[in-house]
Amino acid sequence: MNGHELDRRAVEAWFRRRGLPLVVRQDRRGSALLQRAIPALVFLLTLDPLVSLLALWADRPRGELEALLANPAFVVGQLVVVAVAALVLPALVAWLVTRWRRRLDASGRRVLAIAVLVLNVPVLPVIDRAVGLRDNVWVSLTINVGATLLVLLAVYVGAGSILAWGLRHAVRQLGTVGTMATKALPLLVLVVMFAFFSTEMWQIADALPRYQLWSVVALLAGLSVLFMIATQADELREMTDRASAGGLDDLAGQLRDTPFAGLTGGEEAVAPQPLSRSERANVTVVLFVAQALQIAVLALLVFVLFVLFGALAIRESVVVSWLGEGLASGRLFGIELPVSRALVQVSIFLSVFSGLYFTASAATDPHYRKAFFDPLLAEVRTSLAVRQVYLARRAVGSYPGMRTVTDR
Question: Membrane-spanning regions, if any (predicted)?
Fold first, then answer.
């Protein structure tokens, strides 16, 4: 494999890691398809027997199972076990296999991909039947074949890359908690603090059945989504139109810390490359998910803050004077919390309202925009700049005509 081929693969892998698989040329999307599907197939290979074991464990007499579920500690423990078995352990195994795959050469990766496919489709159903986890081999085989085909289709259209990028970005957003706590939370708390101490707010929130509260949450979240779509559409239209017209400012600076760092070409090498509909949709989804994760992390911070603040600052006697006797204990997703139901309801409502306020502020307020929205747009600009050079080099073959920035 020559250096140009390695460069091309590195750039295409870079696009996929950034959640932009549809930027990769269509004739390359099916390349090494089975090898790229290894993480997802290993995830399914690990998940299948774990789910079967959990199903066997839960197959108890109804009375015994109801007695166990009546114990809150047991419920919490089982939720942890299910989360580890269904998400953490398969994801960990898939990650370890992926790291191992990167150390293999091309032939080794092909052998690994074939081995995973064989284990996942014909071998696993037979093993499940032999050890008593499944009764019907053919049903298991059909399910595994269907799941494998869906995984391959998802990898081909880029869904796996977008999902993996979203998970990595979500983890990265957790690292910005400090920035949010110092730059976003203080003003947000000032805005909603008066509502938090309002008797009417507590009465309204406490009177809502939980399903109705979630309906209110969905309404406010929908408004946030509509506002995000409206503001992002204008920003993206300007950026993508400039990229399609070849309007790349400071190309060398935008290529810094990318596979094309230190390289650029003449004007002919970065000629206008109009974005296709699928590319525009891919860029839109990436920016939307990135901002949505920001808002979700902030809303979660506000919820935790108000629950802690309410538990410390508002005595039960005060809440009783607002709402009357008979305060119910708080529950969230079936888990009982050591605070009142009213406090949980109020905190949920105000956290979602804060998310809506933050959505509007991030696009309109210069302080919020500089700290939270502009960095997301900068990532998109970098991706579009790399796309221009990538397609230009693809168009002329073997990436000729490129020279270092310092040689210009």
Answer: 37-58, 78-98, 110-127, 147-167, 211-230, 285-314, 342-360
C-alpha to C-alpha distances, 139 to 115, 123, 130, 144, nearest whole angstrom? 22, 13, 14, 9
* Domain spans, the chain: 30-157, 170-407
Q: What's the pTM value of the predicted model, to 2 decimals? A: 0.65
Tokens, residue 124: 């696993």
User: Cα–Cα distance between 202 and 217 in angstroms, integer?
Assistant: 16
pLDDT in tens, 57-76: 666 666 666 666 566 666 55
What whole-number distance in Å separates Cα of residue 408 and Cα of residue 404?
7
Measured in whole angstroms, how far is the alpha carbon of residue 248 from the centre of its chain? 29
- 320-332: pLDDT as tens digits: 888 777 677 777 7
Residue type, 120: N
Contact call for residues 265 and 407 (beta carbons, < 8 A): no
- What b/e string do you get for 336-368 counting C-beta neighbours within 10 Å, with b at 16 or more? eeebbbbbbbbbbbbbbbbbbbbbebbbebeeb
Alpha carbons within 13 A on the beta-carbon side of 251: 25
CA distance between the termini of the chain: 29
State the Cα angle at 243 between 237 and 249, rounded to 5°: 115
pLDDT band at 340 (very low <50, low <70, confident <90, very high): confident
Tokens for 187, please give them: 């003003």
- Cα separation, 217 vs 227, in Å, equals 15
